[in-house]
Write a sequence for this structure.
């Protein structure tokens, strides 16, 4: 299907590029590649968008959600490093927005989608590095992306070409066909043709981009550049900017420094470190002195404080004792004064008490006081006589009234006896009527024939209580039947509820089983998607899909694949680390040799293994330190003579100043006295004695004059030739070297510098190989991180296990509900039997007692029985009252 926009207003979704000027889209000057244009076709909400750079820069403006960050995610640095990991694509470093989501997500309704992203660079031909071309050069890199709803993977084809995309010029590259559809991979290969390449792997594409756009960058610097781009691409960079991290990233992108500069700087830092250490030592001594002074000061302060505290305590104690003594004296004086006052008051009170006692005694002895007491007694006797007369008068009046009342009571008693007789007959009739309803007519007749009140009442109570017991017996059986029916009804309700719960449990089991199947299918799909998306952890997707329902099997498969991948990375790391350690050891050895060369002024020839004599204990010097070449001697002759002397062993032979042999030892010595004179040219013609040498000039010259010299080694027992030939007695030979290295201070210095330069080159080569090893180790570490990240991203079984547990709980609940239904059915059956048995018993008891089995009828009988008892009690009471009234009337009338 052709590309379509998913929003109604595309202008709100597209970033606004820098307004085009005459310079927009033009190639960079000076032979440097500059980005000129970029494009996105049919990805996310972009239909066919082209961004133009102005002077290699692009400004994206717009509100949130218009696609500024998305443009960066799809273009840079993706088109440099060709990495589809979500964390590399997202400007925020997240993993939720994959390239598959960019193609198929955010409202896209199709099943397949193909899109392109591309980036164009240009440079002019008037600067260095542009070759022989006069016109501008172009380089376009891009990627064809394809996704579908059937898989989470994204098919990608990376391409590079010198064609431009859709410029309207001859030879342009069109990424869509005439119908507006993005090109297929086959059509893309045909469209690029020989002017570019559709790369088989992302690594080939990355290498082409790196070699074309960044020809001076190795892989390590290119990776550092990508890392810097990722860091600098972060939105709102200034809010979370870490200067240290940014400095590290930019530093890694810089070219390596010269080894000599690094060495010089390192030496300077070493000197600074030594001075810093000395300063730290001095600071430490100052701190120690300050601490000692502080401790002494603290000690003195504590001693003074202790003495002052003792003095202050003694003074405070003395002040307290003085204050207490003064207060005690004042309290003593006040107490004495109060004691005197109390003594005076006591004496005054004793005198007043004596005066009052004497006055009382005088008053009680007076005649008037005794006459007053006799008058009170006479008054009391008068009151008593008056009270007795009143009582006698009231008693006589009462007896008269009682006689009148007795006459009235006799008349009233006759009338009351007649009235009570009538009432007793009426109560009997009511009681007889009330006895018919509860079936106690026989009991009433027996009551009527019983004349005595108490036996009648006992008979009434027995009859009523017996009927009540019969009613209660029927009620008990009826209550048992009612309870049985109620329990049966409750059991039936519980059965219905249990069956409803069982139906709900069956529905829950089915629902949980569907949930579990859905979770299993989802986990199977996620495991397959995860396995296909893994780069390092090569797990078997089919085996994982088959074992998705078994967490242990999945863990075993994943751990096995992770273990194999981790073992492979570990073995590779061990190998690379071993190689790096070996290279580092070799570099340390070479660095040590270089430092020795820099510290030594003269480099001696390599000592033979046959030498074991310590030359430091000898007088004299080796031959190469005692001579130098005469001015004007050709350099080739110098090299040949030195080569002949070195090969014959004379170059490093030791010369003693006096000719005496040293203590026994293994070494080579040169003795001019033991050599025959030369009758022709000798080494003295090309070599001179070094002035101030530790061996006398005449002995050195004598040795030179007795060694024959010529273009070739002459026929003499000791001879050397300019061509490197030599002869010593019966031994002869030849050796050549490009230039002298030991004879003459200049030659030795040049040789030392050559050796240092050679070591520098070898060290630089080792540095490169170590850097390559570090890169390989970093790559392995990155792969291990990817492996661990892939392992961490493995879909877990949490949701599936929860669904499994929910299904098991639902099945257990279903089984329990089934058991509950069975128990409820048994309970209903049992209560059916109980209801039938109790109903039979109720019918028998009610028939036997002459009562109804209905609750309402029993209530009516009980109410009638109560009414009868009340009526009978009233009748018996009325009959008893009537009898008593008749007897009382007889008594009063008689």
């Amino acid at each position: 299907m052709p590309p379509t926009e998913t929003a109604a207003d595309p202008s709100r979704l597209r970033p606004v590029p820098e307004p085009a000027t005459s310079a927009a889209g033009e190639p960079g000057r000076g032979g440097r590649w500059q980005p000129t244009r970029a494009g996105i076709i049919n990805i996310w909400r972009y239909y066919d968008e082209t961004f133009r750079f102005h002077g290699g820069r692009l400004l994206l403006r717009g509100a949130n959600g218009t696609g500024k960050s998305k443009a960066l995610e799809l273009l840079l640095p993706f088109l440099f490093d060709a990495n589809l990991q979500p964390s590399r694509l997202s400007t925020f470093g997240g993993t939720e927005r994959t390239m598959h989501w960019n193609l198929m997500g955010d409202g896209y309704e199709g099943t397949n989608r193909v899109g392109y992203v591309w980036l164009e660079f240009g440079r002019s031909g008037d600067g260095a590095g542009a070759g022989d071309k006069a016109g501008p050069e172009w380089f376009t890199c891009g990627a064809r992306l394809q996704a579908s709803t059937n898989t989470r993977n994204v098919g990608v084809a990376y391409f590079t070409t010198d064609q431009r995309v859709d410029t309207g010029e001859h030879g342009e590259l069109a990424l869509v066909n005439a119908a507006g559809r993005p090109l297929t991979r086959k059509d893309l290969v045909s469209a690029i043709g020989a002017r570019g390449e559709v790369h088989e792997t992302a690594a080939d594409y990355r290498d082409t981009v790196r070699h074309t756009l960044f020809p001076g960058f190795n892989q390590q610097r290119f990776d550092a550049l990508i890392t810097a781009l990722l860091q600098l691409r972060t939105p709102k960079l200034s809010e979370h900017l870490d200067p240290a991290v940014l400095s590290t990233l930019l530093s890694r992108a810089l070219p390596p420094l010269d080894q000599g500069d690094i060495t010089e700087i390192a030496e300077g830092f070493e000197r600074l470190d030594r001075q810093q250490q000395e300063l730290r030592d001095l600071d430490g001594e100052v701190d120690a002195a300050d601490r000692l002074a502080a401790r002494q000061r603290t000690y003195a302060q504590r001693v003074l404080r202790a003495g002052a505290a003792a003095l202050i305590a003694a003074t405070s104690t003395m002040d307290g004792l003085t204050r207490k003594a003064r207060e005690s004296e004042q309290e003593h004086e006040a107490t004495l004064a109060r004691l005197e006052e109390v003594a005076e008051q006591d004496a005054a009170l004793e005198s007043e008490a004596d005066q009052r006692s004497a006055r009382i005694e005088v008053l009680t002895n007076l005649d008037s006081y005794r006459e007053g007491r006799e008058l009170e007694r006479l008054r009391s006797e008068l009151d008593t006589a008056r009270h007795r007369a009143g009582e006698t008068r009231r008693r006589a009046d009462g007896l008269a009234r009682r006689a009148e009342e007795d006459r009235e009571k006799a008349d009233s008693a006759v009338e009351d006896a007649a009235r009570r007789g009538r009432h007793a007959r009426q109560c009997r009739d009511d009681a007889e009527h009330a006895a018919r309803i509860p079936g106690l007519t026989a009991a009433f007749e027996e009551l009527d024939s019983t004349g005595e009140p108490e036996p009648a009442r006992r008979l009434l109570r027995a009859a009523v209580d017996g009927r009540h017991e019969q009613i209660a017996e029927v009620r008990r059986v009826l209550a048992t039947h009612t309870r049985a029916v109620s329990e049966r009804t409750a059991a039936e309700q519980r059965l219905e509820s249990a069956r409803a719960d069982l139906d709900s449990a069956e529905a829950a089991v089915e629902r949980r089983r569907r949930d579990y199947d859905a979770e299993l299918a989802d986990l199977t799909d996620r495991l397959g998607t995860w396995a296909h998306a893994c780069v390092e952890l090569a797990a078997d997707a089919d085996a994982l899909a088959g074992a998705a329902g078994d967490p242990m099997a999945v863990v075993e498969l994943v751990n096995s694949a992770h273990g194999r991948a981790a073992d492979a990375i570990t073995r590779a790391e061990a190998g690379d680390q071993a190689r790096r350690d070996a290279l580092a050891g070799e570099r340390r050895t070479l660095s040590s040799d270089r430092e020795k060369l820099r510290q030594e002024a003269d480099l001696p020839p390599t000592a033979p293994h046959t030498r074991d004599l310590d030359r430091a204990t000898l007088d004299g010097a080796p031959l190469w330190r005692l001579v130098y070449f005469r001015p004007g001697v050709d350099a080739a002759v110098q090299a040949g003579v030195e080569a002949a002397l070195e090969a014959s062993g004379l170059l490093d032979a030791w010369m003693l100043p006096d000719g005496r042999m040293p203590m026994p030892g293994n070494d080579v010595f040169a003795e001019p006295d033991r050599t025959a004179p030369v009758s022709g040219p000798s080494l003295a013609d090309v070599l001179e004695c070094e002035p101030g040498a530790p061996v006398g000039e005449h002995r050195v010259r004598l040795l030179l004059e007795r060694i024959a010299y010529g273009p070739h080694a002459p026929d003499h027992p000791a001879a050397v030739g300019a061509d490197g030939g030599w002869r010593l007695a019966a031994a002869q030979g030849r050796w050549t070297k490009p230039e002298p290295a030991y004879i003459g201070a200049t030659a030795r210095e040049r040789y030392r510098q050559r050796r240092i330069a050679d070591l520098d080159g070898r060290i630089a080569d080792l540095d490169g190989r170590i850097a390559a090893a570090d890169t390989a180790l970093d790559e392995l570490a990155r792969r291990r991180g990817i492996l661990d990240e892939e392992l961490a991203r493995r879909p877990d079984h949490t949701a599936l296990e929860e669904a499994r547990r929910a299904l098991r709980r639902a099945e257990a609940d279903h089984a329990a509900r089934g058991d509950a239904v069975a128990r409820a059915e048994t309970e209903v059956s049992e209560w059916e039997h109980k209801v039938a048995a109790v109903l039979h018993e109720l019918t028998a008891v009610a028939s036997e007692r002459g009562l109804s089995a209905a609750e309402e009828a029993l209530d009516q009988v009980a109410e009638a029985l109560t009414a009868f008892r009340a009526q009978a009690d009233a009748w018996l009471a009325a009959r008893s009252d009537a009898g008593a009234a008749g007897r009382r009337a007889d008594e009063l009338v008689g």
User: Anything to note?
Assistant: Residues 274 and 280 are 10 Å apart (CA to CA). The chain has 20 helices and 14 strands.
